[in-house]
UniProtKB/TrEMBL annotation:
It catalyses: a long chain fatty alcohol + a fatty acyl-CoA = a long-chain alcohol wax ester + CoA; an acyl-CoA + a 1,2-diacyl-sn-glycerol = a triacyl-sn-glycerol + CoA. It comes from Kalanchoe fedtschenkoi (Lavender scallops). The lineage of its organism: Eukaryota, Viridiplantae, Streptophyta, Embryophyta, Tracheophyta. Pathway: Glycerolipid metabolism; triacylglycerol biosynthesis; Lipid metabolism. This is Diacylglycerol O-acyltransferase. The keyword Transmembrane applies. Keywords: Acyltransferase, Endoplasmic reticulum, Membrane, Transferase, Transmembrane, Transmembrane helix. It is a single-pass membrane protein. SUPFAM superfamilies: CoA-dependent acyltransferases. The chain crosses the membrane at residues 194-218. GO terms for cellular component: endoplasmic reticulum membrane; plasma membrane. Residues 329-385 form the O-acyltransferase WSD1 C-terminal domain. PANTHER family: O-ACYLTRANSFERASE (WSD1-LIKE) FAMILY PROTEIN (PTHR31650), WAX ESTER SYNTHASE_DIACYLGLYCEROL ACYLTRANSFERASE 4-RELATED (PTHR31650:SF1). Residues 41-263 form the O-acyltransferase WSD1-like N-terminal domain. In the N-terminal section; belongs to the long-chain O-acyltransferase family.
């Protein structure tokens, strides 16, 4: 058993977003797969967790209470028994398809529930050699504990360099992409500032009108990939594919985009090509050389949940775990609608250019802030079950 202490209160109210993640429609987990070049040593992992993750209050707290009858969910600190959280399954290390086994194992994790009488996280250690690792660690963490970015930062802050066991891993610093206002002075700067503000307001207005219309009546086009009501509760299978980051950077530089632009462009390309095949009656090209079988004006969007709370750096998180100091943590969830351009362009790079235009507009909009404020207001007025 591991006791807990520090500056954090022994009992803290759960945030509205955290409570939302415990409702049936949003009860979800963050699953992270980590590969190791060495065969995992369970005892060393336990020692490392005691010195790092368990010092974070969310990893050593249980959820108590409910949102009914005027109650309120809250986090309560508790002692942690690592044997209840670390799972080492007995598996055949010489199996024929270890990578497929990992996919199956992760898929099974998405279907299993968690024991709410203990802190809501698990670590599964697979002593299995895959094509990229000699052993695998799979974290399953309830989303009410934190968002994906913060959790990845926390896990990184729990590691150290092989070359220097006392040093944190080196993380590339994000380059601040300014909007250009700092490079303009005089009348040009004033005019640009006015234009910048007007476009911000216009983008926000357009995004919020579309968001409200979507809530009320504006639906996506019925396509072969549109699920029926209740599909979100069906069993899931998570399949991963690898691609070269150098190739992504090559496309990024060629289109003067970002890596996120390229990833969204790849997603649009994959969905467009898939739907094009599904709409083809005989699998052959239907529209001359272009082979475009898609109906016109397909409306297909993704509702992306984003955390607008600024994530703490790994240095701050490492200091928190070493000295029990406080750091900002938690979910401040907002919603952003991302429209997909479902087309078959002649130039495949057009997928990336279209994605860049979409993301640039979303960056220059207050949609995320507005949806967060609206969601928080609704929770305050009508409660979590509304």
């Amino acid at each position: 058993m591991v006791a807990v202490s520090g500056e954090y209160a022994l009992e803290e109210p759960m945030s509205p977003a955290g409570r939302l993640f415990h409702t049936r429609g949003f009860n979800c987990f963050v699953i992270a797969v980590v590969g190791s070049s060495e065969v995992v040593d369970v005892d060393r992992v336990k020692i490392g967790l005691q010195q790092s993750l368990l010092k974070h209050p969310r990893f050593s707290s249980v959820m108590e209470g409910d949102d009914g009858k005027g109650g309120r969910r809250r986090w309560v600190r508790t002692a942690v028994n690592l044997d209840n959280h670390i799972v080492v399954p007995g598996i055949d290390p010489d199996m024929d398809s270890p990578d497929e086994f990992v996919e199956d194992y992760v898929s099974e994790l998405t279907r299993s529930s968690m024991d709410t009488s203990i802190p809501l996280w698990e670590l599964h250690l697979l002593k299995l050699k895959t094509k990229n690792a000699n052993s695998i660690g799979i974290f399953k963490i309830h989303h009410s504990i934190g968002d994906g970015t913060s959790l990845m930062s926390l896990i990184l802050a729990s590691t150290r360099k092989i070359s220097d066991p006392d040093a944190l891993p080196s993380i590339p610093k994000a380059k601040k992409s300014g909007n250009g206002r700092g490079h303009r002075t005089g009348l040009g700067g004033v005019l640009f500032g006015i234009w910048w503000g007007l476009t911000l307001l216009w983008n926000t207005l357009v995004d919020m009108v579309l968001f409200v219309m979507t809530v009320l009546f504006l639906k996506d086009t019925d396509t072969p990939i549109k699920g029926k009501p209740g599909v979100e509760f069906n069993p899931k299978r998570i399949v991963y594919r690898e691609f070269s980051l150098d190739d992504v950077k090559l496309v990024k530089n060629a289109t003067k985009a970002t890596i996120n632009d390229v990833i969204l462009g790849m997603t649009q390309a994959g969905v467009s090509q898939y739907l094009n095949r599904k709409y083809s009656a005989d699998g052959e090209k239907a529209d001359g050389a272009s082979g475009n079988n898609l109906p016109e004006n397909i409306r297909l969007r993704a509702n992306v949940l984003v955390n607008i709370r600024q994530s703490a750096g790994i240095e701050d998180l490492a200091e928190m775990m070493e000295r029990n100091s406080k750091v900002k943590w938690g979910n401040k969830i907002a919603y952003v609608l991302i429209p997909f351009k479902i087309t078959i362009p002649e130039d495949p790079l057009d997928y990336v250019r279209q994605a860049k235009a979409i993301i640039d507009m979303k960056k220059h909009s207050l949609e995320a802030i507005a949806t967060y404020r609206i969601g928080k207001l609704l929770l305050d007025l009508f409660g979590i079950k509304s």
